[in-house]
Amino acid sequence: MIKRVFYIFIILTIGALVFSQSFKQVLGNNTQSANDTHSGFVDFPDPLDRKVRLAAMRALTHFPDLQKTQIDFIVDNSITNCIMQAQPKMNFLFKSKDSREYKIKIRSIIGWEDDTLYLKNFSNDVIEGWFAHELGHVMDYRNRSNWDMVKFGTRYVLSESFMKKAEQSADHFAVESGCGDHLVCMKEFILANERLPESYRQKIIDIYPSPSEILELTKAGKDDESNGQNL
């Protein structure tokens, strides 16, 4: 009798493992269908809303240079003064810059004083614009040595002028990747949303390129492409 129960337990365990693997494959196909043109190593946490996942994947398709870059998208509602945050993983000092891994922290529940906003309720273009900006940071990081990354992090914290250059650089990378219109949507949403704190909106004005500056960069890029085609 005990032997029979043991065999039944083994059979049920194997069946459960096979089913769970099949379910994971189906779930992956449903939630990451926008990954068709991106062959990189991307990891999403289960709590991240499907709409937000797909916005991230659409943004990634604009960055073919990141196809072989490990990027983990992590829900972290404890981050402050921002909605998303791109960083190298802590083990970057022990890796070459070509094998460096990154994480993008995502604040899915945005609580300001007595008000609460949810990232999943923002428009697709706004969410995609946020991801494009963070992926612009990753593009910037990947060109830097490990020692340069250490200096970058120190100067970013200590110098507002350096922070401004870093944020402008991220937006430039995003515009060059074809995400200018999404950046404009994101910035206009922030500046017009009175539910966001005045201090946060003022930070966007002081540190980041304005919507009009992004439009100028986008137009200049399109003009360059047009001139190149006419040569």
Range of strand content: 5-15%
Structural class: alpha/beta
**Shape descriptor:** globular
Count of DSSP-assigned helices: 8
**Strand arrangement in the largest pleated sheet:** 1-2-4-3
Record field, number of beta strands? 6
For the CA atoms, what is the radius of gyration? 21 Å
How many strands, which pairing sense, and closed or not: the largest β-sheet? 4 strands, mixed
Unreliable spans: 1-39
Secondary structure: helix percent: 55-70%
Mean pLDDT: 80
Order of helices and strands, N to C? HEHEEEEEHHHHHH
End-to-end C-alpha gap: 84 Å
Structure description:
- With 231 residues, this protein is α/β, with parallel strands linked by helices.
- Helix content is 57%, strand content 12%.
- It contains 8 helices and 6 strands, in the order H-E-H-E-E-E-E-E-H-H-H-H-H-H.
- A 4-stranded mixed beta sheet has the order 1-2-4-3, with helices on one face. The protein has a two-stranded antiparallel ribbon with strand order 5-6.
- A hairpin with a 2-residue loop joins strand 5 and strand 6.
Sum up the structure in keywords:
4-stranded mixed β-sheet, alpha/beta, globular, 231 residues, two-stranded antiparallel ribbon, 8 helices, disordered N terminus
Short description:
The chain has 231 residues and is α/β, with parallel strands linked by helices. Helices cover 57% and strands 12% of the residues. Strand 1, helix 2 and strand 2 form a beta-alpha-beta unit.
